[in-house]
Amino acid sequence: MTRRIAVIGGGIAGLAACWELERSAPDVEIVLLEATGRLGGWIRTESWGDVVIEHGPDSWVAAKPSATDLACALGLGTELVGLRLERAGTGIVCDGRILPLPEGLSLLVPTRLAPILASPLLTPLGKLRFLAEIFVPPRCDDEDESVASFVRRRFGREFYERLAEPLLAGIYGGDAERLSLLATSPQYRELERDAGSLLRAVLRGRARRPAMPGPLRTPFVTLRKGMERLVEALAASLRRTEVRLGTVAVAIVHRGGVYRILTSDGTALEVDGAVVATPAAAAADLLEPLFPDEVVWFRSLPYASSAAVTLVYRREDLERVARGRGFLVPARERRPISAVTWVTNKFPERAPEDLAVARVFFRSGRHGYRDEAVPEALVAAALQELRVLTGCAAAPLHAVVSRHDRALPQYPVGHRRQVERLRSALARWPGLAVAGAAFDGVGVPDCIVSGWRAARAVLDGLGTRRASHADPAAQPLQEGR
Known about the structure:
Layout: E1 4-8, H1 12-24, E2 29-34, E3 45-48, E4 51-54, E5 60-61, H2 66-73, E6 80-82, E7 90-94, E8 97-100, E9 105-106, E10 109-110, H3 114-118, H4 124-131, H5 147-155, H6 157-172, H7 181-184, H8 186-195, H9 198-203, E11 220-223, H10 228-237, E12 241-245, E13 249-255, E14 258-263, E15 268-271, E16 273-276, H11 280-287, H12 296-299, E17 303-314, H13 315-318, E18 326-328, E19 337-342, H14 343-346, E20 355-362, H15 375-390, E21 398-409, H16 415-426, E22 432-434, H17 444-462
Parallel strand pairs: 1-2, 1-16, 2-12, 7-18, 16-22
Antiparallel strand pairs: 3-4, 5-11, 6-11, 7-8, 9-10, 13-14, 14-15, 17-20, 17-21, 18-19, 19-20
Helix pairs in contact: 1-10, 1-17, 5-6
């Protein structure tokens, strides 16, 4: 008997689920429902002449191999691009000046002590408090806490405000005071528990930068023509998936041994199983008829909005100020932006040789981006920030505004336990699974693995025999974006 499975949500997680269903179960029919008119979610690339402009993520973390493995499986291996090594270096704004980020800092934990101790970013008292981390008693229970609380507890307020907070804002786009440690960076609690101190783990050689698999040997990987190439190749590879764009699923009900997916146009789709790969609120609406108690928390999962302005300049106008790959702006600076990336310094082939590209990211919430801000105001603010912080007064040749309202899920304290509770409830409904950034990680590799795992969970729940191949979902989730 041929099984029919629906995948709800055409972002990278939903597409990855379709891909895994096709290769794992050759006899399964798949229907992909996407509410908007395009696939890929907030992965979107456009071109201005030969300039590559990203509206969403511009790369993925190489230490998580799923995205690289998928790109190679889709025939994109020759299009993979790594960081420009000759333009290394990142800055951090401190009291209005751009200072170098200390080398060897792996998100929240330094893998080398000397650069931190030599950095002007910390005061002498801040450095003493940083070194005192080795005497801070470890927390050995399983209770969650915010990332901000963890960093302050281990390294002090100054290290958090001047180094950790801007790095976290660049990944999650939100407030580290609310972000769950166990949902975003559980490896640091494990280091604390096992070594007693993160600095002690560094001295013992246990806290190292993650390995960089693949031939490029680079921390970040992208595609020559932009991130949307991955979406395009993935969608083009699907052979047994019927794609329905502009179709909004509003509820899932279970009757007579099958799932009925109700849509906004009043029709219903009957399937044997389903992968729900939508944002949290939409997933809560879909699943509420099946287990209303477990989705209450999910409906209120906070999301941060995102806005960025991409500016195209003549190369000579930006070359003087564009040092390294960009700089971060801590919240303590009370500026509306959180980071600036010198795009053409970061990756090769982003623009012709006579042009240079900058991308200015706005902070979410207080002092930053507001949903009601008009594009012209964002461009003006981006230019003003570049003038003040770098001295760049040149007029750009082109400006593009990227806006994503409620785009980045913010995992609150206790998030991991709530996800486990939801998945326990899902176990009562064979053939049903969830995937996407709202659950196991916000990075592109995390979402891909989430889609793969959901596809396999649906097939296993239905008792469908899966084709034998290497498990692409074996990698751990959430070890940094």
